[in-house]
Structures are given as C-alpha cells and as structure tokens.
Amino acid sequence: MRKKSLAALLPMRPIPSPLVLRRARESDLEALLLLIHDTIDVSYRGVYPESAIEFFKNHHRRERILERLRGGVVLVFERTNRLIATGALVGNEILGVFVSPDHQRRGFGRRIMLVLESHAKGLGLRSVTLSVSLPAERFYRAIGYELLKPRHIKMPDGERLDYWEAWKIIP
Which of 16, 65, 122, 169 is most buried, by CB atoms within 10 Å? Predict the structure, then answer.
C-alpha cells in the first residue's frame, strides 16, 4: 500500500492574509485615488449617467483626498499591501467612504463608519453629516442615518446627479 504525503492528507485552504484598519498616510494618496475611482466606475455605472460619474471622480480627485489627509482623519482597510476600503471625517462631516467592489457586503464599510463615528464622539461631536449617493442609500439607512433632503446637481449635459443630505446623532 502506498503512503500518502502529509500535504495530500491536509485540506488545502488558502491562508487569509492579515487585514489592517489604520489611519491613511500621504504616501497612500495614489492607492486611495485608484480605490475610489475604481469603486465609482463599478458601483455607480448603470445608476448614474456618465457625466455624473465624471463629476464624482473629479470631486474625489488627488487634491481633495490630500485635503482630507491633512485636515481630518482618513481610515483605510489594507490587505496584502492593497487598500480595500476607506472613509474620512473632516469636521463633523463623513465623506469619501468607499469599499472596493470585490469586498462589498462584508462589513468593511460598517466598521469604518463605526470607527469614524467613535472618533467624532471623542472629539465632542454629537452628530455627523454626510451626502448619500443612490447606490449607498440602503447601507446608510441600515446603520441609522436619517436621509433628510433629496438633492440634485444639474450636469452640463442636462442630466442629474441625485443624492441625499443625511445625518446621525452619535450614540
């Protein structure tokens, strides 16, 4: 009877790479830009017109991300030297919350929001505000945000970019 090797007897499961939630650094700028723009391209396509997608990408351009890094708290989830989620708190506004499409619905956005809200509370803030895109409406409602007022921006080509203003009292 032939002996089986130890490797043949053990189930082959991939070893998950470490996941780190940390504060973003200026050296993360290009990776943040890539994460945000890729997520906009995938998650907003079919929901918003092309002109609105370009508006979002321009709104989340290098200079704006750098302003957040320098003037607020920007968090990232990192796995194997790849950023997979991000979110920022600047003043009492949460913004730039994006989760890579292949990592959505796994709790990364919820965890970033909880940490940002906790940080806001530590700063003495009693509530936070944010703008909610169409694809993110259900997510923000599920984590306790009140959508206050539907808003829109008229695009140069006549199309609309619809969103909501929202807020939450920090528990």
Answer: 65
Q: For residues 30 and 66, what is the distance between their CA atoms, to the nearest angstrom? A: 10
In this structure, are residues 76 and 83 in contact, taking their beta carbons and an 8 Å threshold?
A: yes
Pairing verdict, β 127-133 and 160-169: antiparallel
- For residue 45, the cross-strand partners are 48
- The number of CA neighbours under 13 Å toward the Cβ of 158 is 0
For residue 38, with 0-12 CB atoms within 10 Å meaning exposed, 13-18 middle and 19 or more buried, which class applies?
A: middle
The answer, as to whether pTM is greater than 0.85, is yes
- The torsion angles phi and psi of 7, rounded to 5 degrees, stand at -60, -35
Position 12 scores a pLDDT of 54
Q: Which CATH class is domain 20-169?
A: alpha beta
Show me where the domains of the chain are located.
Answer: 20-169
Q: What is the pLDDT of residue 6?
A: 47
Task: Report the distance separating Cα 48 and Cα 86, nearest Å.
Answer: 22
Tell me how far apart the alpha carbons of residues 24 and 168 are, in angstroms, rounded to a whole number: 24
